[in-house]
Design goal:
30s Ribosomal Protein S19, Chain A, single chain
């Protein structure tokens, strides 16, 4: 369910700090975002950021399609599941080539 229109976008304190540093034209030393519930502001447009996934970080380039969404939408934390039989067939096909 979408967030109500009368509610503002949510930004954590760490995201606010990074927004203020960008507005003052200072370089961000750490572009790692740990709070995935925050929205992506438009001041990060055309910049690379890193989103914490639990063990590793994921690089993300901010473009027009990403602005306004949450950081967590782009950091998948679950390992993809593959059926073992299908995977072994793919390995056999690759080894034959």
């Amino acid at each position: 369910m979408a967030r109500s229109r009368w509610k503002l976008e949510y930004f954590s304190k760490s995201v606010w700090r990074k927004i203020v540093l960008l507005k003052k034209n200072k370089k961000l030393k750490r572009r790692i975002f740990y709070d995935r519930a925050s929205s992506i502001p438009d001041c990060f447009f055309s910049r690379y950021i890193r989103i914490h996934k639990g063990k590793r970080n994921r690089n993300l380039l901010i473009d027009t399609f990403v602005i306004g969404k949450k950081f967590g939408e782009f950091s998948y934390t679950r390992k993809p599941f593959y059926f073992p039989a299908k995977r072994s067939k793919k390995k056999n096909l690759i080894n034959r080539r």
